[in-house]
Amino acid sequence: PAFTDSVLLIDLCFMDRKDLSSNDDCSSKLTAIPSDSALEALPKTELISLLKRVAQERTQAASPGTKKQKVTHSPSTPTLDVKKTKERLLRDSTTKIKKTAHSWTKTPITELMIAVPSEQDAMLLFEGYTPKKTTTQTIRWELHREEVNEFLGSSAYIHPVKFDGKVLVFVWESTPKIYAYASYKSLEVKFEKRTCSLSFKFKSCLAGTGKNGDSPLELCAQR
Q1: Residues 29, 30, 31, 33: what is their CA dihedral angle, to the nearest 10 degrees?
Q2: Given this model, what pLDDT does residue 6 score?
Q3: Residues 187 and 156: beta-carbon distance below 8 Å
Q4: Considering only CA atoms, which of 158, 47, 51, 53 is closest in space to residue 102?
Q5: C-alpha distances out from residue 5 to 48, 49, 51, 215, 220, Å
Q6: Sign of the CA dihedral 87, 93, 98, 103?
Q7: What is the per-residue DSSP string for 87-153?
Q8: How does strand 197-209 pair with strand 109-115?
Q9: At what angle do helices 2-16 and 44-62 cross, to 10 degrees?
Q10: What is the DSSP string of 21-39?
Q11: Residues of the chain with pLDDT under 50
Q12: Residue 58: phi, psi to the nearest 5?
């Protein structure tokens, strides 16, 4: 209910900004309204910040003599908490990967999406990583194996993950429970400038099997 009320508030504010949006000079400075999926991913603090910015623009649009006033946000002061954002990405991605079936022939894909305050915040998050492609609409990054672990601050293995491989069992034996390990294989990231949203596509693979605490054979690196 709280999320729905927030979205309705944003919609109402957005409609009251129509007069201001008709001015091309001001329209380019208005706060971008993320998509529904991006709004669902927003933490409470970021959602409150977004509501405050939109409400401020609504007030300025309704006040006499303020139509020509530009709503500006400094591009040189990113506000994203990089450490907490990476911790959240690591937690959410590993949680989903553990629930995804892995085998020697599968390369599962895990997708996440988050909203960031600005393009500068997205660049700050990926500081030290050169974009693979940049256009007027998007910025894309691609990381591989160790780069993904370095970016997230993760260990080499994700375990235990759901095992979907074949196991040889004799008729008099019960089916064994396989303790499986996975590894990040790659990460593709796309930043949408219009909505200030980041979409993440993690590819993982089965790294090996063994007992909890052991180091599995890294067959993933050979694929």
Answers
A1: -130
A2: 52
A3: no
A4: 158
A5: 12, 15, 11, 49, 46
A6: negative
A7: HHHHHHHHHHHHTS-B-TT---EEEEEEE-S-HHHHHHHTTT---SEE-SSEEEEEEETHHHHHHHT
A8: antiparallel
A9: 30
A10: HTSHHHHTTSPP---HHHH
A11: 1-4, 15-28, 66-74, 218-223
A12: -60, -45
Q: How far apart are CA 183 and CA 161, in angstroms?
A: 10
In total, the chain counts a number of residues equal to 223
Q: Which residue has the tokens 């002061």?
A: 77
pLDDT of residue 208: 87
Bridge partners (DSSP) listed for residue 190: 140, 199
Beta bridge partners of 163: 102
Question: Which residues are CB-neighbours of 80 under 8 A, at least 6 positions away?
Answer: 116, 117, 121, 124, 125
Residue for token digits 């998050």?
Answer: 125
On whether the CB atoms of residues 17 and 57 are closer than 8 A, the answer is yes
**CA 186 to CA 184: how far, in whole Å?**
6
C-alpha–C-alpha distance, residues 159 and 216, integer Å: 11
Distance, CA of 46 to CA of 49 (rounded, Å): 5
* Chain centre to alpha carbon of residue 151: 13
pLDDT of residue 175: 60
What is the reported pLDDT for 130? 96
The token pair at 143 is 């990381």
CA distances from 122 to 48, 86, 115, 139, 208 (A): 19, 12, 9, 9, 34
- Sequence letter at residue 70: K
Task: Give the chain's count of helices (H) and strands (E).
Answer: 8, 6
